[in-house]
Amino acid sequence: MIRGREELGGTPERELALDCVEAGIEAADPERAIAESVSLDGDRLSIGEASYDLSTYEELVVLGGGNAGGRMASAIEGVLGERIAKGRVVTDAPEETGAIEVLPGDHPVPSERGVESTRAMLELADEAGEGTLAIVLISGGGSALMPAPAEGVSLSALQEATEALLASGAEIGEINAVRKHCSAFKGGGLARRAAPATVVSLIVSDVIGNDLSTIASGPTAPDATTFAEASEVLSRYGIDPPEEIAERLERGANGDVAETPDADDPAFDRVDNHVVADGFTALEAVRDLSRERGYEPLILSSSVRGEAREAAKTHVAVTEEVRRSGNPVEPPAVICSGGETTVTLRGDGTGGPNQEFALSAALELDSHTALASVDTDGIDGASDAAGAVVDSETVPDPEPARAALAENDVYPYLDEQGAIIETGPTGTNVNDLRVLVVTGPGSSR
């Protein structure tokens, strides 16, 4: 999975950190998650503790998308086979499928081909009737991959606003509040379009706490945010949006545009949502592998957030405590976390949250400690990297490293140090995964 794996290793700590990253991503593979959560016995489709009698439906269609959309489509075809009448999913990591069309989109900035693909998918939703069972596949990245600009909003305006929000350091829920109110798909829009069909969503979550309204901007979940709140997000981060977006949000706040559907909306009367994999799925795999290798595992949290370079310092502080006092675990140990950190752009370089996390940590790490930090979809920020693996040898001179962080230009520095992790699109997305391996006595720097 990890390209150039031999060059990235070299020490027991780095090797184990890379092994743990691969184990975490593999555990969150949609095919594996669906195989463990979904089964078919005759006409009885079981998803977790819920079940559906397929004989009561006139047709079965598949909709949705996201980074994991292709893998999920392949997996659900493996379960349902010829029972699927038709389907369309949108992704940037295509798979070979049969009845389900896999359509292209782009991430993290929405594209015109993503608009066309999403419109084609929504056409199937519009055709659904009361006798339709719609299996909806949702995963991280869906917000960008499935743009459906609302009436009066252009793709270019949506792109401009998205880029500004990503650069601002806004959290994903804030970004999605704006996206939902500029979309015909997000914020319960797909559920509204598919009604009165029965909608059953299978979800691979990349969101802290698995908030259904935030994953892919919640196409089949009620939306509690409002037009006024979307405007407040833009104001909070000092973003001056394109005029057509500002006008739409103002019209919505004045009641001239219908709000996104909330929990009382009849669009959700026949909607079930099932999370089949999330960030904790990856962390559990890291924990299990660590124990197998004789290391004491510690899951810090699946909900880490905040500025990447600052969160890194806290993680390093935990390793120092482990080494100094054996608290909360004795070394050798593997410390891991998930969630989603952010980067507030001040420079104009290349990198991403996991790369900034890694380089910030490398400035502080003791010897006999290694860190691997990746975005599980294989795309960290706007770069081609998944993340980076570092140790105390990654930064021979602190000043160039600090300068790279100051300019948000960490990719060239880490690449020169042979620290960049590349996987290509992994076909899943359960957000960030960070692994710290602590062995042996420490050394002050």
Automatic annotation (TrEMBL):
Tagged with keyword Disulfide bond: no
Sequence ranges assigned to domain MOFRL-associated in this UniProt record: 17-250
Gene3D superfamilies: Glycerate kinase, MOFRL-like N-terminal domain, MOFRL domain
UniProt cross-references to Pfam families, sorted A to Z: DUF4147, MOFRL
One GO molecular-function entry: kinase activity
Domain spans labelled MOFRL: 334-432
Keyword set, alphabetical order: Kinase, Transferase
Name of the protein this chain belongs to: Glycerate kinase
Organism annotation: Halalkalicoccus tibetensis
